[in-house]
Design brief:
With 95 residues, this protein is mainly α. It has three helices and no strands. The longest helix has 30 residues.
């Protein structure tokens, strides 16, 4: 039996479900890993931030997506920064 939308009462339930503390904790750890990925082992901490952000998002924290994005950006930026430091070091050693 199908429901007729004209006779179904409307509800004004606009409450937002609370964020799970476990999801928020994983998201915060994801942001910390993203910050670490800029300067220390970006190939390790960048993917860790992405995974933690996605898992935090799946557990109900809306900021988890931003932690994953920050991890991806920090991964790329950390690799570029590391390559620049390595190239500058090699240039100084060759002179």
């Amino acid at each position: 039996m199908s429901t007729d939308l004209r006779t179904t009462p409307r509800t004004n339930d606009t409450t937002v479900a609370p964020t799970g503390t476990r999801g928020r904790t994983l998201t915060i750890i994801g942001f910390v890993c993203a910050a670490l990925a800029l300067f220390i082992l970006p190939i390790v901490f960048g993917p860790a931030a992405i995974v933690l952000g996605i898992v935090g998002w799946r557990q109900g924290d809306r900021l988890g997506v931003w932690a994953a994005v920050a991890g991806a950006v920090a991964l790329v930026a950390g690799l570029i920064l590391g390559a620049m430091v390595f190239a500058a070091n090699e240039a100084n050693n060759n002179t």
